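Handout for the seminar on molecular recognition.
Each group receives one record of this type.
Step one: identify the two inputs.
Step two: read the structure output and locate the region that could contact magnesium ion.
Step three: write two sentences on what you found, then compare them with the reference statements printed after the record.
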Amino acid sequence: MEISAVIPFFNEEENLMPLYKRLKKVLNKISPYHEMIFINDGSEDKSEIVIKKINKNDNKVKLISFSRNFGHMAAIHAGLANSKGKWVTVLDADLQDPPEVILKMFKKAQEGFEVVYGIKTKRKEDIFRRILFKVYYILLNSISYYKMPLDSGTFSLLNRKVVDILTEMPERNKYFSGLRAWTGFRQTGLLYERDKRYKGKPASLRRLFNLAFDGLLSFSYIPLRISSFLGMIFAALAFIFILIIFILRLFFQIGIIGWASTISTVLLIGGVQLITLGIIGEYLARIYEEVKKRPEYIIKEKIGIKN
Ligand code: UDP
Ligand code: MG
């Protein structure tokens, strides 16, 4: 098998057929030995039926169905784990990642790269999301220990070596684009214009925030460091403050009467403590998730894939 395409989908009934047609042309150009693995992440619409129909006419189209919605990242990893290709490409089902770009990625990979990832040149989302993304990527890069390519998402082409490493990782909370960068090897970006979603609605902001948190926390301990740092600053300030009070009291007989200063200090320190606890809690929750060792996803049905 030369190339596998991994396509996670959640309620994309109107997009799957047009995607299949465009992707088929592209894969045929690369090699007749290809497969498309569609992962149904608990869709509630007719998406699954669409794929089953396509599979009847084209046995290179395969389906993995989850028992419920497990999330975009889990779906990608199920696809990777079941792929057979020497090369594996991951793309969204809503045609935001134009399949034709895979040809360019494939060409680029032949120059000796194990990973070619897409870099979005123009985002066609609304301005609010664009700003959020920008801020997030800057934040991610400034705190993470590994260099993360800016503005790159899941759309990419990976060598089998990298795919095997990713699927063998024991962690459960898999943040795909971060882990992909983390594996190392020769990686390169390829500029592409990200299209508008073909049909249907995009992910909710809540889902994006969850992903963003995973990205920030799974590649850095800096948020914890910031907590310790804030703690030290406030302890130092408190120490200086106490010293000043003592000196004023002992040598100048001035007692500071001030409800306002007391209450504002208490509130400020209280706030910082809560934020700090929150950050610790975020990591703790992730540790808890990992130690429970529940599977990343549950497969209800596989079509065209032997175990
Ligand atoms: N998706 C998924 N599970 C989910 C949500 C989304 O597999 O719970 C898929 C979706 O069908 C699409 C891709 O992940 O193929 C990206 O989702 P979406 O377009 O909603 O997000 P955005 O493009 O805004 O990042
Ligand atoms: Mg999309």
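Reference statements: The chain is about 50% helix and 15% strand. The beta strands are 3-9, 34-40, 61-66, 87-90, 115-120, 152-159, 187-192, 299-303.
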